[in-house]
Amino acid sequence: MATESQAAIRFGIIGAADIARKLSRAITLAPNAVLSAVASRSLEKATNFAKANNFPPDAKVYGSYEALLDDKDIDAVYLPLPTSMHIKWAVSVAQKKKHLLMEKPMALNVAEFDVILKACEENGVQLMDGTMWVHNPRTAQMKEFVSDPQRFGQLRTMHSCFSFAGDAEFLKNDIRVKPDLDGLGALGDAGWYGIRSILWANDYELPKTVIAMHGPVLNEAGVILSCGASLHWDDGRVATFSCSFLANMTMDITATGTNGSLQLHDFIIPFREEEASYFTNTRCFFNDLVTGWVPLPSEHVVTTDIPQEACMVREFSRLVANIKNGSKPEQKWPIISRKTQLIIDAVKTSIERGFEPIEIKW
Q1: Catalytic status, residue 104
Q2: CATH no. for residue 40?
Q3: How many domains are there within the chain?
Q4: Can you give the residue range of the structural domain that contains 265?
Q5: I want to staple 245 with a disulfide (CB 3.0 to 4.6 A). Which of 120, 166, 205, 282 is the partner?
Q6: Is the peptide bond preceding residue 295 cis, with omega within 30 degrees of 0?
Q7: What integer pLDDT is reported at residue 19 of this predicted model?
Q8: Where is the GFO/IDH/MocA-like oxidoreductase domain (predicted)?
C-alpha cells in the first residue's frame, strides 16, 4: 500500500463507459491509487456506476464533468470518453492541473493530440494513454529477448493482428462505428494496438513510409471496420498490421530477427490475467529428415501479482507522485502516443489517397 510519505493518488473518472469498469477495478487493485470520484452527465448514472463498481463509501459522485474537475481533492483523471470528446475534456483536465490517463486513440488526429499535449505541458501534468499490455511484466521480458543481439539479432519483419467479430448490435450502435463519436473506427481502436506493438519492437523508431493495404471495409457512414497497412524503414525493415471488427478474435504478434523469432497470441489481453506466456526460438532449422524443428521453440511463462491494467495505474500513479515531489512529467509516454497517432493519420491518409505511400514526418 502507499506509505504516508507517498499518499495514494486520488483518481476521478469522467464518464461511465464499459472500459471504465475495468479501470475502476484496476485503480482499486493498484497499491498506490484510490478511487475518489466519478462523474457522469446524470447524477443517477454516476451513482449507479459507483455502486456497481465498488467505489469506497467516501467516494464522491458528480452529475457533471465540470463538478469533478473543480474538486481540488482529485489528483488524476481517467478519461474514457469517445474520441471526438477528448480534445475538449483533456484540455479541461490539464487546465485544472490534474494528471491525465486517457483511453486510446488519444485524438482524431495528430493536430488535436498536439493541442492536448500543449495543455498538459503548460500545466505540468502527466499524460499517458491507456494501452495496458505494454505495462504487463511479460512485455519487459519480451523486450529483453528482441533486444538481444545473440538470441534475436536485428529485427527484419514484424506482423501484428488484432481483430474481433462485432455482432449486429455492435456494428450498428457501438460508439466505435459512429463518425461523430469515434470516427477512426477499427483503425483507431484495434489498429492502435498493432501500431503500438510495431513501434515497441522497433524501439519506437518511426518508419520512413506507411502504405495502407487495399481492400479496407467501411460502413455506410464511412467509418473503417477493417483495414491494414505496411510500414517501411530505410534499412529494409518491414512491418504489417491488420485490424478488424469483422473477423474472429485474434491478438497475434510475430517478430522475426536475423537470429531468432518471437511469437504470441494474446498480446493485448492475456488468456489468463495472472500469467502470460510467449514463444521464442533461436537459430532454428529443419532436422535431418526435414520432419521437425531443431531446436524446438521454447515457451516462457510470466506471472504477475496484479493484472496489467493495475500495473499501468501503478506506474502512472508513481509518476504523478514523483511530480508531487518535484520531478518533471515523464515525456516518454506522450512521445510514444504521438508516434502512434502519427501512423494512424498516415494510414487514414493513404486510404484516402488511393493507397499511396505516406512519408512520416515528426
Answers
A1: yes
A2: 3.40.50.720
A3: 2
A4: 134-308+341-359
A5: 166
A6: yes
A7: 83
A8: 142-262
Whether 151 shows a pLDDT value over 70: the answer reads yes
Q: Is 356 exposed, middle or buried (0-12, 13-18, 19+ CB in 10 A)?
A: middle
User: Of residues 22, 98, 104, 339, which has the active-site annotation?
Assistant: 104
CA distances, 346 to each of 98, 174, 204 (Å): 31, 25, 16
Q: Is the pLDDT at 118 greater than 80, yes or no?
A: yes
Grid cell of 141 as nine digits: 521480458
**Predicted pLDDT at 5:** 44
199 contacts: CB under 8 Å, gap ≥ 6: 205, 206, 336, 339, 340, 343
Residue-wise over 180-206: b if at least 16 C-beta within 10 A, else e?
A: eebbbbbbbbbbbbbbbbbbbbbeeeb
For the entire predicted model, the pTM comes to 0.96
The amino acid present at 25, given as its one-letter code, is R
- Can you tell me the distance from the alpha carbon of 193 to that of 189, in angstroms, rounded to the nearest whole number? 8
- Summarised one tens digit per residue, pLDDT across range 211-225 is 999 999 999 999 999
Percent with pLDDT over 70 in the chain:
98
Which three three-digit cell numbers place residue 12?
476521478
